[in-house]
Amino acid sequence: RWRATRQLVYTDCPHAWLAADGTFLVRDSSRKTNTHPYVLMVLYKDKVYNIQIRYQEQNQVYLLGTGLKGKEDFSSVADIIDYFQRTPLLLIDGKDRGSRNQCKLTYAAGFT
């Protein structure tokens, strides 16, 4: 199980940092704006993917990524995590846009 607060995400697991595919962490975005509050970090095949979590104030929903792909919106960050623990998340390499991988979120990684 994982819990989120404004500043951190933590897990009940005693081995918080796991190097398994699907390990994830939600951290504050370096942008620190209302529209880009968090980043979802996902480990897959020894690579870390950083996925923007956007907030659309008009509709009061959270969205993943740049907005170019996918239209799923969520009422909370917890809903994003719950959804992608059951449904594979599309991972796009920022350096190789043609590279497409998918994985489910499996383990919460620890503190931000």
From TrEMBL:
Superkingdom, taxonomy of origin: Eukaryota
UniProt GO BP: cell surface receptor protein tyrosine kinase signaling pathway; intracellular signal transduction
Identification of the protein by name: Lymphocyte cytosolic protein 2
GO CC terms in record: cytoplasm
Keywords of the record: SH2 domain
UniProt entry tagged with the keyword Zinc: no
Ranges of residues in domain SH2: 1-109
Cross-referenced InterPro entries: Immunoreceptor_sig_adapters, SH2, SH2_dom_sf
